[in-house]
């Protein structure tokens, strides 16, 4: 099968290699000429046989919209576009309408596997019409892991990215649980080898997982994670998961808390905790820390007697 691939970064570049290894023809385009097979997006279209299939692997939002707009003007009725990035499912519905008005098919594909996908394969969650999805099966089979699992036609347009969004929300909560357990183990004096405790969990326990394996790999490189700053970004999918939960009245306390924990990681001096500290001091005389730390010991001494009564 022949396919065009737009976006050859960490994921897209490896996907091109895996698809080619399965015997298919891939024409890749990227704004970085060192990665690209062609000079322009129009060149990619010209290189593909009709009816064309173009898979998009670019950042969600404005960049994806720009590429979809370009493809809408370059492709013809009967062609097919796949969005394999981390787009929001509501954007999929919009893109399907826009392309459908021109007779161009659209499929959304949630792709999970990261930098390991080239070797192990990618989990694929797909949304779209049965006809379009079936047309893409040779590519899905090339990308998915070996064996019967790792691919699902989740439903109509938007279902693939919705499923991937929920997957990432669960991932947030799992990472947060491992992180909290690690911090608690690091805090106590009785445990003197936290890395090996994590390693012992890799076999025979109910919390073993690939994320746990990666945590052990990280601790092998930096046993106390002293080289890292405690700061974590979010891709947007955690937020979308929480918003969808609100829309559907589904309680997601663990996923929501893990998202908020990432927000907290970006604050060197939490404004909220300033108010919490001030209130604790007002109602119970609990110690507070000065912003410049001057007089801190005196404040602690003055509040010590009152603290037991709060």
UniProtKB/TrEMBL annotation:
Claim: tRNA-binding is one of the keywords in the record: no
InterPro entries tied to this protein: 6-PGluconate_DH-like_C_sf, 6DGDH_YqeC, 6PGD_dom2, 6PGDH_C, 6PGDH_NADP-bd, 6PGdom_BS, NAD(P)-bd_dom_sf, Pgluconate_DH
Bias type Basic and acidic residues, positions: 289-303
Region (Disordered): 287-310
Claim: Oxidoreductase is one of the keywords in the record: yes
NCBIfam families, alphabetized: gnd_rel, PRK09599.1
Family, per entry: Belongs to the 6-phosphogluconate dehydrogenase family.
Name of the molecule in the record: Decarboxylating 6-phosphogluconate dehydrogenase
Species of provenance: Streptomyces cathayae
């Amino acid at each position: 099968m022949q396919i065009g691939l737009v976006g050859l970064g960490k994921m897209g570049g490896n996907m091109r290699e895996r698809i080619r290894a399965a015997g298919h023809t891939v024409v890749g385009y990227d704004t970085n000429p060192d990665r690209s097979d062609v000079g322009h997006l129009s060149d990619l279209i010209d290189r593909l046989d009709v009816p064309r299939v173009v898979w998009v692997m670019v950042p969600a939002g404005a960049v994806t919209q720009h590429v979809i707009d370009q493809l809408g003007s370059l492709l013809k009725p009967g062609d097919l576009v796949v969005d394999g990035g981390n787009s929001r499912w509501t954007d999929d519905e919009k893109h399907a309408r826009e392309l459908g008005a021109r007779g161009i098919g659209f499929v959304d594909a949630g792709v999970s596997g990261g930098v390991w996908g080239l070797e192990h394969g990618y989990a694929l969650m797909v949304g779209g019409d049965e006809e379009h999805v079936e047309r893409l099966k040779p590519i899905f089979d090339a990308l998915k892991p070996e064996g019967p699992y790792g691919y699902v036609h989740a439903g109509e347009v938007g279902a693939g990215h919705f499923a991937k969004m929920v997957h990432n929300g669960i991932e947030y909560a799992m990472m947060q649980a491992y992180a909290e357990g690690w911090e608690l183990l690091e805090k106590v004096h009785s445990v003197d080898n936290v890395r090996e405790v994590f390693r012992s969990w890799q076999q025979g326990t109910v919390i073993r997982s690939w994320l746990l394996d990666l945590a052990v790999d990280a601790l092998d490189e930096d046993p106390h994670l002293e080289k890292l700053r405690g700061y974590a970004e979010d891709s947007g999918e955690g937020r979308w998961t929480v918003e969808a939960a609100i829309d559907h009245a589904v309680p997601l306390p663990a996923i929501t808390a893990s998202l908020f924990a990432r927000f907290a990681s970006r604050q060197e001096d939490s404004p909220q905790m300033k108010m919490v500290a001030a209130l604790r001091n007002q109602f119970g005389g609990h110690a507070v820390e000065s912003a410049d730390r001057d007089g801190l010991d005196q404040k602690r001494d003055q509040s010590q007697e009152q603290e037991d009564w709060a």
